[in-house]
């Protein structure tokens, strides 16, 4: 278990694990973390900045954490700014673990920690619910593509012959096509009337389809060096079928590479989903994903006047990708055979 000791002693690994744990837990329990519905619209409250939390009333008396009802005023035609109208006569207390939620306000005031979007919906709520889609695509897509890649590479390398030639030529054809263009082309032909659930499944299928070829080629090379080892010959002599040998004896020898590579590949799936949603080919509103939330960045006025609508999903994507890379690099160092022997 030297590799585990090395991983535990690596602070970068713990940074990645901590951030990913927080993100996945927050997305999983999004209904509990925020008291608002994902498409719940606050009246007269579009494009509000993050809510300011107060501790003292207007007379300076301490009354605990509270917010005030806030709405948007008229637009300044010269600057584009909108004045905030705050009703200081109605303080709304913030209560923790109230009403089945992590936090909740008791009055008319809303606690929008990351502000509201153009339809008055809570940005934090949509960010956490959108994380369910973006984070889940990474895991499911990686699982499917790695299953296909390992099986195709394992079968091609172990059986060889004409089957190896056919499979590897197909892999080379698939690898020769620029994946981003193929993704856009495949996503663009999706029927517009399908639901987001169906679109989610199809996006996973598309991303998985274009992602397994490179892995299959690498696994094939590793299987070629493994299949003539003594324990493989013994399994073959005992009458085990080729598929059984591949699944139970050959592929487990590549598990270290698969774990490290998968950890580093999950962020790629997340970024691809974000790009597809950013250009309007991914998850469609009103359902949120980090990609379609980031699509507001194409509006210059939003970037300048309401930057919190752009930097929150962008920061979530950056931190997620960075955390997976930190974890993947730490696993690679911990599982390095040279380090294990030392």
Can you describe what's shown?
With 342 residues, this protein is an alpha+beta fold. 60% of the residues lie in helices and 9% in strands. It has 15 helices and 6 strands. It has helices at 2-8, 11-28, 30-33, 123-159, 161-176, 179-188, 196-209, 213-226, 230-237, 242-250, 255-278, 290-294, 300-305, 308-335, 337-341, and strands at residues 54-56, 62-67, 70-75, 82-86, 92-98, 101-105. The strands form 2 sheets. A 4-stranded antiparallel beta sheet has the order 1-2-5-6. α5 (161-176) packs antiparallel against α8. The longest helix has 37 residues, at 123-159. The radius of gyration is 26 Å and the shape is elongated. The two termini are 12 Å apart.
Outline the secondary-structure elements:
Elements: H1 2-8, H2 11-28, H3 30-33, E1 54-56, E2 62-67, E3 70-75, E4 82-86, E5 92-98, E6 101-105, H4 123-159, H5 161-176, H6 179-188, H7 196-209, H8 213-226, H9 230-237, H10 242-250, H11 255-278, H12 290-294, H13 300-305, H14 308-335, H15 337-341
Antiparallel strand pairs: 1-2, 2-5, 3-4, 5-6
Helix pairs in contact: 1-14, 2-4, 2-14, 4-5, 4-7, 4-8, 4-10, 4-11, 5-8, 9-10, 11-14
